[in-house]
UniProtKB/TrEMBL annotation:
It comes from Latimeria chalumnae (Coelacanth). This is Endonuclease/exonuclease/phosphatase domain-containing protein. It comes from the Eukaryota.
Length: 137
């Protein structure tokens, strides 16, 4: 598959001929900064074919893993699992990813603790209700 001028969206390792739906997918990915993951990895054709016709002759790569370009380096591999029993003429597309998650920083702000036992006193409870009512008018 010739991907001249489409390298920003798809890799060199796609299978089959590009039709109008494929062109729309590439346009969508280009506009939204996505890449088509399965076209970036070199595999045997049998590990890239995602669909076969009922006669078993026509085969194509029509199912894809699409990922935002900023996460592209997290995508380690995309391949097809032909042995998955899913009762379909499509094959299972599997992606291996590696993500590094940053630890959350602990906040230095102290939380103010309220003495809720004071709400048992009717005058304190009424005063709080009035303040809340006035605040949200």
């Amino acid at each position: 598959m010739d991907n001249t001028s489409l390298e920003h969206v798809m890799g060199k390792h796609g299978v089959g001929q590009l039709n109008s739906n494929g062109e729309k997918l590439i346009e969508f990915c280009g506009i939204n900064s996505f890449i088509i993951g399965g076209t970036h990895f070199r595999h045997k054709t049998i590990h890239k074919i995602t669909w076969k016709s009922n006669d078993g002759i026509t085969r194509n790569q029509i199912n894809h893993i699409i990922i935002n370009r900023k996460w592209a380096k997290s995508l380690l591999d995309v391949r097809i699992k032909r042995g998955a029993d899913i009762s379909s003429d499509h094959f299972l597309v599997v992606a291996n990813i590696q993500i590094s998650l940053k630890a959350r920083k602990k906040s230095n702000t102290l939380f103010r603790r309220y003495n809720t036992a004071l709400l048992d006193q009717p005058e304190v409870c009424n005063q709080l209700q009035l303040e809340i009512r006035d605040r949200f008018k």
